[in-house]
Amino acid sequence: RRNSYEMCKETADWLRARTAQCPKTAIICGSGLGGLAEVLDNKTYIPGHQNPILVFGELNGQPCVCMQGRFHYYEGYSVGMVTFPIRVLFLLGVEVLIVTNAAGGLNPSFQVGDIMFIRDHISMFGLGGQNPLRGPNDERFGVRFPCMSDAYEQDLLSLAMESVQELGFVSFTREGVYCQLAGPSYETIAECRVLQALGADAVGMSTIPEVIVARHCGLRILGISLITNKVMMSYNSQEKANHEEVLRISVVRAEALQKLVTCLLGKLGES
Ligand code: HPA
Known about the structure:
The chain is α/β, with parallel strands linked by helices. It is about 35% helix and about 25% strand. It has 7 helices and 9 strands; from the N terminus they run αββββαββααβαβαβα. It has helices spanning about 5-15, 80-90, 125, 155-165, 190-200, 210-215, 245-270; strands at about 25-30, 40-45, 55-60, 60-70, 95-105, 115-125, 175-180, 200-205, 220-230. The protein has a 5-stranded mixed barrel. A hairpin with a 5-residue loop joins strand 2 and strand 3 (about 55-60). The longest helix is centred in the last third of the chain and has 28 residues, at about 245-270. It is globular. About 45% of the residues are buried. The structure holds hypoxanthine. Hypoxanthine binds near residues 186, 203 and 231.
């Protein structure tokens, strides 16, 4: 299995041989949000053999590592591969995981450009039997039946909210339930209506398998969705979901997100 203890350990050791930095915080940069890594001080870039690039450095004086890009399920990777970097980060000594993504807004009160802290999630995969923890459990990572009702940590959320207040971002910050579908096709109108009825506020194509595996191994998690578009709820709508729009909005809010994460890291350092 791609995320077995041995394979993750081998990669963690490989990384340790390439950087002396020992980050306590890891940030996964979602679609269009990779620029976050560029603002780190004392950067060390470590390209993976495949996609994600790890950037070690410091943000606001705190050691951290950014993952630019991720393995998406829609690219054909297994959930084991999608969650492999999380276990590697855990073995490197990371304690706090900040996961970001681009998402479509289902909640009618959300605006394009809103930042949504993930309060809870609905895993369409998990409900459908594709849980990343399926299979033999390795106790070196965590328990067989991990709790998920507290996956998104309240203390981290409170610190993030403090940062939002200080930065004056309250008007475009929300909290809500994130729902993940496999992708890569965007949702139909009927699907969006179903997700909304189920209680989801935002929909995307990543993050939940990573969160489940991170919670399993005891990482503290903060999830942030950038609402890059409003999903279609009506057959009369002329809009169409498209990736270019998603990337365009990410660029617009990239700076605010960088400031938010920078401020939060400072607070984490103090706490
Ligand atoms: N749906 C799914 N994933 C997304 C969307 C969306 O509307 N926007 C950004 N990622």
